[in-house]
Write a structure and sequence with these properties.
Helix content: 10-25%
Radius of gyration: 20 Å
Distance between the termini: 23 Å
Order of helices and strands: HHEHEHEEEEEHEE
Largest sheet: 5 strands, antiparallel
Shape: globular
Amino acid sequence: DNSPAMIARARERVAEMKLGYDAVAVVEGDITALDAPALIAAACALDASDGVDASAGFDAALVLLGTAAHLLHTDDAVSCLKGAAACLAPGGIVVLELEHPFDLFGGDYMTMEGDAWDREVDGLKVLVEWGREGDEFDVGTHVVRRTVGINIVTADGQPAPGHTGIEEEVECRIFTAPEVALMARAAGLRVAAMYGDMDVNTDLNHPDAHNMIIVLKKDAARSAPEGFEVEH
């Protein structure tokens, strides 16, 4: 992550889960400019008692929970995928979890209504608003400016002491599968599989599909496609 606050929280989580810093490396960085040698070195510096050698790269890079949607510009998205590819060992994969593009083709983003849900955490209720009626969608860039709100209340619905609600606009890009395939090709990767959920039995066209999961693979040896350079 490139946020000091998120880095600090990640380290807190490692401590809370008693994983130990010999098992998890928390590294500050930017996904549009990944430092592959530094990431691989951080992995190699971990406790190697399990016999795993990370010097050749990682088996998998996971970009989950719509994180890639914040790559609003194609150049940034390709740069991210190139960086991920450079981190992988031959045969390694990148897993992208994105919004399902169904709503894009159905025109629902033109009449944004948003969504909301709640979760109970430590006796408090966390209220999440993800999008709001009237949020702006740019047809030319596929970028939606979502209103995102988070509030924490007590069991009786009152604002929880010590917690301040958050509301802000977040820009997210809605990708299509062919776009991702083309960007992957520019990064020296290929599409190995696509799913509509974290379930291999749910494809993109399945009635229960609500996400777009794309698995990209770095082959052991690939020739550069015409018009592109493959970085290893």
